[in-house]
Amino acid sequence: MASKIPERPPVYQLKITLSGIVPPIWRRILVYGDVKLYKLHKILQAVMGWENYHLHLFNVDDVIYAYPSLEDPWPMETKNEKRARLADVAPEEKTEIGYEYDLGDSWKLTIVVEKILYPHDGLECPVCLEGERSAPPEDCGGKSGYKTFLEAISDANHPDHDWLLEWAGEVFDPEGFDLEAINCLLGKI
Predict the structure, then answer these.
(1) Residue 43: other Cβ atoms inside 10 A
(2) Domain coordinates in residue numbering, the chain
(3) What CATH architecture applies to the domain 11-135+175-186?
(4) Which of 99, 86, 96, 90 is nearest to 18 (CA)?
(5) CA-CA distance, 84 to 63, in Å (whole number)?
(6) Partner of 136 for a Cys bridge, out of 146, 160, 169, 177, CB 3.0 to 4.6 A?
(7) What distance in Å separates the CA atoms of residue 144 and residue 8, rounded to the nearest whole number?
(8) How far, in Å, CA of 187 to CA of 189, rounded?
(9) Which tens digit of pLDDT belongs to each residue from 9-36?
């Protein structure tokens, strides 16, 4: 009697765009549909170059998913992101998922399910296919703080130029995008 080969989950092609930044900062990734939102959060952190220092939440059709904690700052009812699979909360192409990271700086990502694909041999997920521009560094102060940060580091005469560059690790290229480095991080998730 032949054993049945287990069915592999579908592969989701997601486009992730950081809201409110022009020109846009975006990523295109592949993940398995059975990924839980908790792991998707870790994937988003890697593709954006963030360090997971802050609270986050997902919003799908006005249903909030988050990591449960007794210290939750939000009064709304949340569902446990560790129990929610991507394919269950976004079963169709063109579904939009909101993701907010760092509720103080309020970085909002729009995640669009571009395609739902059949898995094939040799496909490794998660993987980043492409993207543009560096994400803002942690704790730079939201959209307005990021704008000020960019102005300061691009002008050697700006009074905050030196200390902000030092704070950012001596180098920050807002146009930089390192696909290989992102995929190296994703390989560790």
Answers:
(1) 22
(2) 11-135+175-186
(3) Roll (3.10)
(4) 99
(5) 11
(6) 146
(7) 44
(8) 6
(9) 899 999 999 999 999 999 999 999 999 9
Q: Report the alpha-carbon distance of residue 76 to residue 78 in Å, rounded.
A: 6
Q: How far is the C-alpha of 85 from the C-alpha of 88, rounded, in Å?
A: 5
Residues 6+ positions from 91 with CB-CB distance below 8 Å: none
**Which residues, 6 or more positions from 179, have their beta carbon under 8 angstroms from its beta carbon?**
128, 130, 131
Specify the length of the chain in residues: 189
Whole-prediction pTM value? 0.90
- Maximum CA extent, the chain: 76
Distance CA 88, CA 36 (A): 9
Q: Give residue-wise pLDDT tens across range 52-106.
A: 988 899 999 999 999 877 666 655 688 999 999 999 999 999 999 999 998 888 9
